[in-house]
Amino acid sequence: MGTVPDDLTRAPIKARLSGAGVLHTEEMVLNVGPQHPATHGVLRVLVSVDGERIVEAEPVIGYMHRGHEKLVEQRDFRQITNLLSRMDWLSGINNEIPASMAVERMLELEVPRRAQYLRVILAELNRIANHLMFTGSFGLELGATTPVMYAFRERELIQEALELVTGGRMHFGFIRPGGLKEDIPRGFVELARRGVRQLVQKIPDYENLLMGNEIFKQRTVGVGVLDPALALDHGVSGPILRACGIPHDIRKVDPYLVYDEFDFEVPVGQQGDSFDRFWVLIQEMRTSARIVEQALDGLPAGSHIGAVPKRLTLPEGQIYCHAENPLGELGYYLVSDGGARPYRMKIRTPSFSNISVAAHMLRGAFVPDMIAILGSMFFVVGDIDR
Amino acid sequence: MGTPPRSLRSLERVDPEEFSRRVALKLEGAAGHVDVRFGAVHVTLPAGDLLAAARLLQGDPELDCAYFTFLSAIDWEAEGFEVLVSLYSLTYGATVIAHVRLPAEDPVMPSLTGVYGGANWHERECAEMFGILFEGHPNLVKLYLPEDFEGYPLRKSFRLASRRFKSWPGAKDEEEAQAGGPLR
Predict the structure, then answer these.
(1) Label partner for A341 (CA 20 to 30 A): which of A88, A230, A246, B167?
(2) pTM
């Protein structure tokens, strides 16, 4: 019997010590994605970690690049609708609207009030469907598997309403220069109303399930704080910008369609952390539901499409037309050379600018927080890559 | 949270015409041409004046264009390139779009990354798609395309691969269908 000699126990640890008793460590590069459940598609992030802490992170994009900006140059002004619908596959209607608005403004086409109201209704229903998707998926990413079931229950009613009108559930192709493809069928008003009422009734459930949950709070409060000045510098928009305390919503600051006729408030966060981003997302569904109810109440009679020339050619010129998409500012810079197709169309998508700031937000965060940060950036890879 | 940006103050909306006069006055000699189209202020600038103008647009409290919306380009073929820089002022609710003309051969312009961090990805995209060199960019590598990709896809001279072999089956124009696809 005797004690174990000092040398034997300490040797291996001593070997790992360097300098003045400091544990020797080295940075490791961790590859996340392109296939990762938290990336909503194929986003790859190269992360350099020092232990559990992220030293440097670089999003690698382009896995879903389909060249929309080149493809639209080959199509006429009606045909591009179906391409644009596919960029952000969660909000097809919202993608289509500003493109038609650009054509209408350049041609000074008059859009009937009924069509404008219906566009608002469809856009807001689509926003709700988009936000419900992220409500569910953000829970999933943080390990809560129940909320997605609730979110999809409500989402189904909204999807049914959209399907009843457009015939599609994802790529709608329903907005035309001058108005809409068709008028709404019988039963839509009731179904849409039922959808938004059920949603408003159930929102407190999501709030209690997630935001009232201690684990959820610990994983999101104070995590991934985005500085407002940095957000502006990178052109961050949508719920992410508003979560930093900046009340910028294009529906308010540059009202399009008939948004100035409705009474709604813009939810604004304070801290700019993951929790606030999620809070803003949930509150925005309430806003959208209010707008839908008001628009359904005041839906004017009339035509769903104005007088549009059979052959659409735009005068020479350039226009920037933007709208508040569910994920942020979507803008089309349309250049016409007087022909039947766009000479050039720059597509400014919200996810592209929003995710360009991710590298700054991930720096210094812990590895598990990366999921909470990326999950609360609410992006669609098709919208980043175009 | 750092210091709250000016934009947190209430919106003091300025009419685009009024804002364009303000921009013209502040940029003085630099701005070749200022006008308002569809509610946005358009400014034509020489490439050499862009950085100074951007700093002024961003920093001057009466302009306060802190929001970087996008950067892109248009290929006018023989007439060169037109680079667009779109900025927004949350304080005054105004959009300013700067236009910079570059020659068709060796288009080079200064990088805006030192002024707006958000320009980084937009310039990388513009560089790989149009072949425009942004001098002073910290990391001007390809953003979307594979490293070994040849050519600049958004130039007009770059024909869509599928159109090289088969004309667009949806062509509605008689004249165009006979020409075997889009005329450009």
Answers:
(1) A88
(2) 0.84
B128 found inside a domain: yes
A341 touching chain B per CB within 8 A: yes
Per residue in A70-92, pLDDT (tens digit) is 888 888 888 888 889 888 888 88
Q: Can you spell out the DSSP letters for A294-321?
A: HHHHT---S-SB----SS--PPSEEEEE
Nearest to A235 among B7, B39, B67 (CB): B67
Say yes or no: A62 contacts chain B, CB-CB below 8 A: yes
A151 interfacial to chain B (CB closer than 8 Å): no
What CATH number is attached to the domain comprising B119? 3.30.460.80
Tens digits of residue pLDDT in A171-186: 888 998 988 988 999 9
Q: Which residues of B touch A356 (CB under 8 A)?
A: 118, 120-121
Q: Where are the domains of chain A?
A: 59-385
Among B99, B77, B128, B89, residue whose Cα is nearest residue B30: B99
Tally helices (H) and strands (E) across chain A: 16, 10
Strands A53-60 and A17-18: unpaired
A59-385: what fold? Answer: Cytochrome-c3 Hydrogenase; chain B (1.10.645)
Decide: A79 and A100 in contact? Cβ < 8 Å: no
A contacts of B70 (beta carbons < 8 Å): 235, 331, 333, 346, 348, 353
Q: Using the Cα atoms of residue A296, residue A300, residue A304 and residue A305 in order, give the sign of their dihedral.
A: negative
